[in-house]
């Protein structure tokens, strides 16, 4: 995964013959051209709205529809798309020579007209075209927008829709930062009014991106939606972008929303820098193992007091405060009491029936893996008796994963490796095949060459509460 940081196609999981549409604001044109160049050869870029003539210079070659065709595009009258493509006589030569070509209508003033929504799909059907990228929305150079009634103009064959927001949208009042601020205020309803002078919050931006009249408007059935937070060029913007990504991935999709139009992950970019991909926030479930019998402690250690609550309650709170997209706690021993603590803190629980046969750690993890949806790309495996491991430490591992460091990650303190550990989906089948006498660490040992170690500043990763003396030593009043 280390190549991810330099690979826009990897960040968006681009497959062959994708039709990718960009909507919103905040640098979507620059993002489209950067991705087009990375995907070349065999790439056509175009627009179904309009594009500034100055932005056309980002393309190595431009093919224009004829004046008559451009007039038809403006009036949106029916005409043969295949015939129109056939009249783009230089398209095949330009593709062969440059690898990427921009197709637009007639240039009038400072802008070039776009093409009809059906044309991108026809272009993709050409044998010499591997990908088509479409700017399907206009924002008048503003970092954030809400679509009007006639927007966005999405090709019906789009396989991926990329709603873009520039992080500078949070640095100015809405009426200055946004295109169509009144529509954004309407979508946010009670959260914000266009007359207010304070900037939008990360939570408001997330609400706009996931709204069916915002970032999800008009998404074709079956298309993926990957929100992109652009201009993440400072630590302040990175912190805000992380908040937005966290909310987007933790918020359940509304039941009325097309179930195929899912948000698999969120991309944080700084397209016009030498590090265009900052982080890719994928769905990681924090799995808390809490099925053990605490035989060495003599009582259920998870239910012992810790601060104002319990050991388990603190562990769950730490996981919920982290940047994982979900938290799942696996029970086994004293199910009712453990479940009550977990659910009071806000965690989902799962019972492991195999705990009675021993191997509660590996069988509990296996039970969790069997329940996870395909959209989950990794698990953060947390021991229930490690309340000392704070959210900041959990986030060190998660951020390393989001930054492309690898998909097998463990913390280390002064040369000693500890818990929790992050394990990617590619290892799930291997974990599921382990016998009850094994442990998750066996997979880490087997793939030591792929293990990425994250240095942390706390010995808490080495400490758990196995024995009474451990609890007495580390108990928090």
Describe this structure in words.
It is elongated, with a radius of gyration of 25 Å. Strand 21 and strand 22 form a beta hairpin. It folds into two domains: 2-281; 282-474, Spore Coat Polysaccharide Biosynthesis Protein SpsA, Chain A (Alpha-Beta Complex), CATH 3.90.550.10. The protein has 17 helices and 24 strands. It has a 17-stranded mixed beta sheet that branches. Helices cover 30% and strands 22% of the residues. The protein is of the alpha/beta class. Residues 1-5 and 72-86 have low confidence and may be disordered.
Reported for the largest beta sheet, the result is: 17 strands, mixed
Number of helices: 17
Strand count: 24
| Apparent shape | elongated
Beginning-to-end CA distance, first to last residue: 42 Å
Mean pLDDT: 88
User: What is the domain total for the residues?
Assistant: 2
> Percent helix among the residues?
25-40%
Radius of gyration: 25 Å
Low-confidence stretches: 1-5, 72-86
β-sheet strand percentage: 15-25%
Helix- and strand-based class? Answer: alpha/beta
How is the topology of this model organized?
Layout: H1 8-11, E1 18-24, H2 28-39, E2 43-47, E3 50-52, E4 62-64, H3 67-75, H4 81-86, H5 91-98, E5 100-104, E6 107-108, E7 111-113, H6 119-124, E8 131-135, E9 144-145, E10 160-166, H7 174-177, E11 178-179, H8 181-188, H9 202-209, E12 224-225, E13 228-230, H10 235-250, E14 265-269, E15 277-290, E16 305-306, E17 309-310, H11 311-320, E18 326-331, H12 335-345, E19 348-351, H13 360-371, E20 376-383, H14 391-402, E21 408-413, E22 416-417, E23 421-424, H15 428-432, H16 441-446, E24 452-455, H17 468-474
Parallel strand pairs: 1-8, 1-10, 2-5, 2-8, 4-5, 9-11, 10-12, 10-13, 13-14, 15-18, 15-20, 18-19, 21-24
Antiparallel strand pairs: 3-7, 6-7, 14-15, 16-17, 20-23, 21-22, 21-23
Helix pairs in contact: 9-10, 11-12
